[in-house]
Design a protein that fits this description.
It is built from eleven helices and 13 strands. By secondary structure, it is of the alpha/beta class. The strands form four sheets. Strands 3-2-1-4-5-7-11 form a seven-stranded parallel sheet, sandwiched between helices. A two-stranded parallel ribbon has the order 6-13. The two termini are 26 Å apart.
């Protein structure tokens, strides 16, 4: 699946962004450090942009047909100090505001903006099945997601179709949570988190990249779209599947109080229960390659041996 249109990508050098760019034809890349982009972007024009303080350069946006916006401070790296939380919020809210202001300055804005969001919008909801119509939760991440999406939606006033991908736990060997979990599980040092009953809204990175492209290509798709696989699993089931995929037992559960002690406020993200379903993507005809956690982990773990 390759999108043969003039595209601009923010967050291109991140875990998901790199996989997405492999599905685009010579995308233009907006980055803080064009001189530091990996060699794989040698065919992509790179433009310097500080999302917190300026609009994107007009030459980067000129003539583009689709914009993919993935830039943002990593949520899972480091404790949530007040400064870390400010960076999480500002990188998404102010960055998106400046991006949309750049689109507003264009003579002819792009047809579509596909912007990242997150399942943090829903908070922790026990066993409740969550489609895109589920209400926003209270709390820091839910508030950030609401502001983030609101800024992206401003582009609709310019005649731009806006799609908001609410991303779950992205699985792949090159990054994300699994890159840190795999070494532990290979040493038989992994285990469930808390009591393991919380639902994990996961998605294989290949499916997520394909969903971004699919969203750009389908003109009837707009608004919130859950970026999760159609078969969420509990943390206990996820742990069991990962242990089976690496051929080692999962012997060391992490109790909830220990996670909160070690990780502070971020522990609430790991312990949240989110049974998120990709209702709109499925109804639009998107086909997941990795529908089950067993198939996804078998591909990732087999590839990384």
């Amino acid at each position: 699946m390759v999108l043969d249109r003039r595209c601009v990508v923010t967050g291109a050098t991140g875990f998901v962004g790199r996989r997405l760019c492999g599905r685009l034809r010579s995308p233009r890349v907006l980055t803080r450090r064009p001189e530091a982009v990996p060699a794989e972007f040698s065919d992509s024009p790179c433009f310097r942009w500080d999302p917190l303080s300026e609009l994107p350069p007009p030459t980067a946006l000129d003539g583009c047909e689709a914009v993919f916006h993935l830039a943002g401070e990593p949520v899972a790296q480091g404790r949530w100090t007040s400064s870390k939380k400010a960076r999480i919020r500002d990188s998404r809210v102010l960055g998106t505001r400046n991006l949309v202001a750049g689109l507003a300055a264009m003579h002819e804005p792009p047809e579509v903006l596909v912007s990242a969001s997150a399942v943090g919008y829903y908070g922790s909801c026990g066993n409740e099945a969550l489609s895109e119509t589920a209400p926003k939760a209270d709390g820091f991440l839910a508030d950030v997601c609401e502001e983030w999406e609101s800024e992206a939606t401003q582009a609709a006033k310019l005649g731009v179709r806006v799609v908001l991908i609410r991303i779950g736990l992205v699985l792949g060997r090159e990054g994300g949570a699994l890159a840190r979990l795999l070494p532990l599980f290979r040493m038989a040092a992994g285990g469930r988190l808390g009591n393991g009953s919380q639902w994990v809204p996961w998605i294989h990175v290949n499916d997520l990249a394909n969903l971004f492209v699919f969203s750009a290509e389908h003109p009837d798709l707009r608004g919130a779209v859950n970026g999760t696989a159609p078969s969420p699993v509990t943390n206990a089931a996820f742990t069991k599947a990962l242990a089976r995929a690496v051929g080692k037992p999962a012997l060391f559960p992490a109790p909830a109080f220990g996670l909160r002690l070690a990780l502070g406020e971020f522990a609430s993200v790991l312990l949240a229960s989110q049974r998120v379903l990709p209702k709109r993507a499925t109804e639009a005809g998107f086909e997941f390659e990795y529908r089950t956690i067993a198939k996804a982990l078998a591909q990732i773990c087999g590839q990384s041996r």
